[in-house]
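[step 3/7] fold_predict: job queued, chain A
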Amino acid sequence: MKHENETKKRIRESALRLFDEKSFEEVTINEICKESGITKHTFYYYFKSKDDLLDNFYKIPCGLSMEEFTAILSMDSYVEQLWMISRKLIDFVKENGTDILRQIMIKNLSNDKGTFSFDTNEIKEVIRLQISIIEKAKKSGQILSKISSKDLVGIYQQIFHSTMFIWIVRDGDFDFEKYLRYKFEILYQVDQSHRKAMSSGMVNEIEDEL
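[step 4/7] structure written:
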């Protein structure tokens, strides 16, 4: 998106702002044109439809930059290293909100955009890193689960996406990150000394919400 034509970028940013204020369904192309100061002809020059505005969002960011990779590996706790990798996906979910993510899911259901594919080189590299960290965490006693490291990664991915689905369906009426942290610690059987969800009284809050 950083290489986009300025007009195209302005249209997209105006539309996303409107989607956030109202909802994807309620916002009209006329409103987008007015907000971005363009004509309908200009809108259709750059985009085929409102759906087309979301094209850049169909790929959930999973890869790590060198800075992120270094920051993760510099952390003392293997549990927190693992959680930090997940934070990139969590931030994507929280930043875009239920309405945008709902449209992304709908689009993938009608025509697979590859949003939820695990078969890219970028994702495979992250999975290898996660497996490596889990192995170290098991040896150090920070993670107590006897499930294979590869299976743990796969199960967590399923938990992440199913939690995201529930969060979207329920219009974000519970704390996505808090609930996911709870599931993360339960799945991996994180040693008590490295738990955050359990030690801060989050369990009762989560159970009350769900």
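[step 5/7] annotate
The radius of gyration is 20 Å.
The mean pLDDT is 86.
exit 0
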